[in-house]
Amino acid sequence: MPRSTVTGAEAGICSGYRRHGENFLRIAESVGNSVMRLVIHVRPGSSRATVGGSHNGALIVAVREPAEHGRATDAALAAVAQAFGVPKSQVRLVSGATSRRKIIDVIDGDPVRLAELLAR
Q1: Residue 92 lies in a domain
Q2: CA distance 73 to 99
Q3: Residue 49: CA atoms inside 13 Å, Cβ hemisphere, count?
Q4: Ranges of H-type helices in the chain
Q5: Looking at CB atoms within 10 Å, which of 2, 29, 60, 91 has the fewest?
Q6: How far apart are CA 52 and CA 119, in angstroms?
Q7: Which CATH number fits the domain that encloses residue 34?
Q8: In Å, how far are 5, 28, 29, 97, 115 from 24, measured between CA atoms?
């Protein structure tokens, strides 16, 4: 399946690149017909769970859970699912299981909603 990048104009988001390994990714990238690939920055141990804003080209996801035994990652995926209004099963971790910076896929993710979250 060919990959196509969602442009800033199409998604209403900034178009800044952020290096991740050998690939250059935008905040959002279309991986299939209904799959949106996002770069997120997880802030574990926050006083409350929030999704919004950007940090070095990634969507910020603050969670209450500590960064141990994958608890913060699981909480971040659940928070993103809730923010996009999709079931948890439609948010998948692609890479970054032990990193604060993660790449995730959101099935049926709305680029307009992403723009709203980034604007916070």
Answers
A1: yes
A2: 9
A3: 16
A4: 8-11, 71-84, 111-118
A5: 2
A6: 7
A7: 3.30.1200.10
A8: 11, 11, 11, 19, 20
86 lies in some domain: yes
| Residue pointed to by tokens 């099935």 | 107
Q: Position 86: which residue type? A: V
Q: Which residues are paired to 54 by β-bridges?
A: 59
Residues paired with 62 in a beta bridge:
43, 50
What does the DSSP assignment read for 86-115?
--GGGEEEEE-TTSSEEEEEEET--HHHHH
